[in-house]
Design goal:
With 235 residues, the protein is an alpha/beta fold. Helices cover 31% and strands 24% of the residues. It contains six helices and twelve strands. A five-stranded mixed β-sheet has the order 3-2-1-4-5, with helices on both faces. A five-stranded mixed β-sheet has the order 8-7-6-9-10, with helices on both faces. 40% of the residues are buried.
Length: 235
């Protein structure tokens, strides 16, 4: 069984699924939350596994999103995944959140949109966006970056492909010819599908990677009034 989870956005989502058959729907759990993933994640895993009579010994692989996203959320997910992998002696695979979104757009789009490129975007603080461009097959065409609407309107003028992610609406406002793809309600479901494909060797030219956090920008931190202390705001 594969256990996949995402804590890098405004939710904590889990997916539990066998590697075979490849199209079997995963068991899912998702809870909207901007903070509190550290306290919620492990109890949610225990509840999901208990509800479907899955034991720790039934797990064979773990997968986790690596960002970009909430600075604290990304750290929490990766730390929990590393701890479980170490305790259970399981292989652990990391996937960029933008990559998972692009995979979801490929997986869910209509046949008429099969040849369209993809812009995956995550809303960041202020008017900023985490963005990465992909071709119609979901292969990255550029490194992920921090951008904003004005820069994207300039760099992708006339773009008529698919937009996916929490930043898609902001991109649509400046890229009117683009089409909105369906963003998954629980990102862990798409993460599990992508991880299952990679584990089974269904994506030529790709390989599994251990999780390394991708932040793209420093955390939002302010100095406390007390010397030597720092207050960290979760982005």
């Amino acid at each position: 069984m594969l256990l996949a989870f995402d804590t890098g956005a405004d939710q904590c989502s889990l997916a539990l699924c066998p590697l075979d058959p490849p199209h079997r729907a995963p068991f899912l759990a998702s809870r909207a939350m901007r903070r509190g993933q550290a306290e919620a994640l492990l109890p949610m895993i225990a509840d999901l596994m208990g509800a479907h009579a899955v034991a720790l010994s039934d797990l064979s692989h773990l997968a986790v999103t690596t960002g970009p996203g909430s600075f604290a959320g990304v750290r929490i997910g990766i730390a929990a995944a590393r701890g479980l992998a170490l305790a259970l002696d399981l292989p652990l695979h990391g996937f960029g959140t933008l990559e998972v979104l692009a995979f979801a757009a490929c997986d869910r789009r209509l046949p008429a949109a099969e040849a369209l490129p993809i812009l995956a975007a995550i809303a960041a603080r202020g008017d900023q966006l985490y963005v990465q461009a992909y071709d119609a097959a979901g292969v990255a065409q550029a490194d992920p970056k921090v951008s904003d609407g004005a820069a994207m309107a300039r760099d992708y003028q006339g773009f008529s492909g698919l937009l996916v992610g929490s930043g898609a609406a902001a991109l649509k406002a400046v890229l009117p010819h683009a089409q909105m793809a369906q963003t998954p309600a629980a990102l862990a479901a798409s993460l599990a599908a992508l991880a299952r494909q990679r584990i089974k060797g269904g994506a030529p030219g790709t390989r599994l990677q251990p999780p390394t956090p991708l932040y793209l920008r420093p955390p939002d931190a302010t100095l406390s009034a007390r010397p030597g202390l720092t207050h960290l705001e979760r982005s």
